[in-house]
Design a protein that fits this description.
Structural class: alpha/beta
Helix content: 25-40%
CATH superfamily of the domain at 3-183 and 235-267: NAD(P)-binding Rossmann-like Domain
Shape: globular
Strand content: 15-25%
CATH architecture of the domain at 3-183 and 235-267: 3-Layer(aba) Sandwich
Order of helices and strands: EHEHEHEHHEHEEHEEEHEEHEEHH
Bound molecules: nicotinamide-adenine-dinucleotide, uridine-5'-diphosphate-4-deoxy-4-fluoro-alpha-D-galactose
Low-confidence stretches: none
Mean pLDDT: 96
Distance between the termini: 34 Å
Number of strands: 14
CATH topology of the domain at 3-183 and 235-267: Rossmann fold
Length: about 325
C-alpha cells in the first residue's frame, strides 16, 4: 500500500480527499494542528471508509518537528498539502499570519522532501491566482495578475516556490490544483464543511439561513454587469475536487506527467450567479430563502469560471456533480449539525 501524507487532512477539502484516497487503496497519514478543524472528523472518515488514517497533531510552522516528522515517514510516496489559512478578509487584517502559515510551512515541507531521491507533491492552489481575469472562461494560460489579497498572494508565491523547486530538481514532481469554488459535502453526510463562527462563504451562509441559524442572507450587490446583476462563480462539488487529487496522484505514480510542474483548473466550466445559487437551494430544500440585496463586498471579482479542457483531456478528470447535487449534499449536511 502506498503511503500518502495529507497535511490539513481533517479540514474541509482534506477530509473528503482522505476518504477518496482510502477508497482508492492508499494508506493515509494526516497531519493537522486542528486550528480550523475537529478531531471528530476522524469518526466521519471511519464511518465512511471503515478505516482511520494515521493522525498526528502537528503544527507545520514548527520547522524542527516538521523535519522530524518527515524523517520518520521517509517512505511516503507523496504529499498532498492542504494545510493553510484560507480566509481572504482575515488575511488583509493579519497578513503576517498568512505569510507564515501558508508560505513558511510550504518551504519547510519542500526543504525536507527535496532531500528525497524522488518527491511527489500536490498543492492546493486557487482561482484567486488569476484575480479578475479579462477573458472567460479562465484557462491555465490566463495571466497571473497582481493578487487582490495577502491570501491570494500566498497562493501565487506558493506556486512560484514550487515551480522553482521543480526547475532546480528534476526528480521533484508537483501538480498545482487551482480550485474554483468548492461546495457541498460527502453524500453520506458524515463529513462536510464546518465553518467556525459566521460563515464568510455563500453556500454555508445559505444553508445556515435555511436552517434558521442565521436570519437572513445578504446578497452582496445586484448591479454587476452580469445577467441578473449578481456575481458569477464556478461552484464545484467537494467530492469532485477530492477525486481530482487521487487522479493527480495516480498521474505522478504512473509517470504520466508531461512536465515536473503542472497546473490544472478544477471547476465545472459553468458559472452560476448568486441568485441562481439561491434558486438551487430553494429547489433542493423546498424552502424559500430569506435574503436581501445589500452593498457590494469589497474585493469581489465580478465573474470567474473555469475552462476545464486541460483538466478534462490532460489530467483525465471531469466534474460529475451538478450545482443542485452539491447544494443538496450541503443542505443534508447542514441538517446533521
Ligand atoms: P480548512 O481550513 O477546512 O482546512 C485546512 C486544514 O489545515 C485545517 O484542518 C487546519 O486545522 C489545518 N491547518 C492550518 N494550518 C496548519 C498548520 N500550520 N499546521 C497543521 N495544520 C494546519 O480549508 P479547506 O477549505 O479544506 O482548504 C484546504 C486548502 O485548499 C487550503 O490550502 C485552501 O487555501 C485551499 N483552497 C480552498 C478553497 C475553498 O474555497 N475552500 C478554495 C481554493 C483553495
Ligand atoms: N456572497 C454573498 N453573500 C454572502 C457570501 C457571499 O452574496 O454572504 C457572494 C459573494 O459576493 C460572491 C459569491 O457569493 O459573489 C461567492 O462568494 P464566496 O465568499 O462564497 O466565494 P469567493 O468566490 O469570494 O471566494 C472563495 C473562497 C476563497 C477562494 C475562492 C476561489 O472564499 O478562499 O473562492 O477558490 F480563494
Amino acid at each position: 500500500m502506498l503511503k500518502i501524507l495529507v497535511t490539513g487532512g481533517l479540514g474541509y477539502i482534506g477530509s473528503h480527499t482522505v476518504v477518496a484516497l482510502q477508497e482508492a487503496g492508499f494508506k493515509v497519514v494526516v497531519v493537522d494542528n486542528l486550528s480550523n478543524s475537529s478531531i471528530k472528523v476522524l469518526d466521519g472518515i471511519l464511518a465512511i471508509t471503515s478505516q482511520v488514517p494515521e493522525f498526528e497533531n502537528l503544527d507545520l510552522r514548527d520547522k524542527l518537528k516538521t523535519q522530524q516528522f518527515l524523517k520518520k515517514h521517509y517512505d511516503i510516496f507523496g504529499v498532498i498539502h492542504f494545510a493553510a489559512s484560507k480566509a481572504v478578509g482575515e488575511s488583509v487584517g493579519n497578513p503576517l499570519l498568512y505569510y507564515e502559515n501558508n508560505v513558511n510551512t510550504l518551504i519547510y515541507l519542500l526543504q525536507e522532501l527535496n532531500k528525497k531521491k524522488n518527491a511527489n507533491f500536490i498543492f492546493s492552489s486557487s482561482c484567486t491566482v488569476y484575480g479578475q481575469a479579462d477573458v472567460m472562461p479562465i484557462t491555465e494560460e490566463s495571466p497571473i495578475k497582481l493578487a487582490e489579497s495577502p491570501y491570494g498572494n500566498t497562493k501565487q508565491i506558493g506556486e512560484a516556490i514550487i515551480k522553482d523547486t521543480c526547475k532546480s530538481n528534476l526528480n521533484f514532481n508537483a501538480i498545482a490544483l487551482r480550485y474554483f469554488n468548492p461546495i457541498g459535502a460527502h453524500t453520506s453526510s458524515k463529513i462536510g464543511e464546518l465553518p467556525i463562527g459566521v460563515p464568510q462563504n455563500l453556500v454555508p451562509y445559505i444553508t445556515q439561513t435555511g436552517s434558521g441559524v442565521r436570519e437572513q442572507l445578504s446578497v452582496f450587490g445586484d448591479t454587476y454587469s452580469t445577467l441578473d446583476g449578481t456575481c458569477i462563480r464556478d461552484y464545484i462539488h467537494v467530492v469532485d475536487v477530492a477525486n481530482a487529487h487521487v487522479i493527480a496522484l495516480q498521474r505522478l505514480l504512473n509517470n504520466e506527467h508531461q512536465y515536473n510542474f503542472e497546473a490544472f483548473n478544477l471547476g465545472t466550466g459553468t458559472g452560476s450567479s448568486v441568485l441562481e445559487v439561491i434558486q438551487s437551494f430553494e429547489r433542493v430544500s423546498n424552502k424559500k430563502l430569506n435574503y436581501k440585496i445589500v452593498d457590494k463586498r469589497k474585493g469581489d471579482v465580478v465573474t470567474a469560471y473555469a475552462d476545464t479542457n486541460k483538466a478534462n483531456s490532460v489530467l483525465g478528470w471531469k466534474a460529475k456533480y451538478s450545482l443542485d447535487d452539491a447544494m443538496d449534499s450541503a443542505w443534508k449536511w447542514q441538517q446533521t449539525l
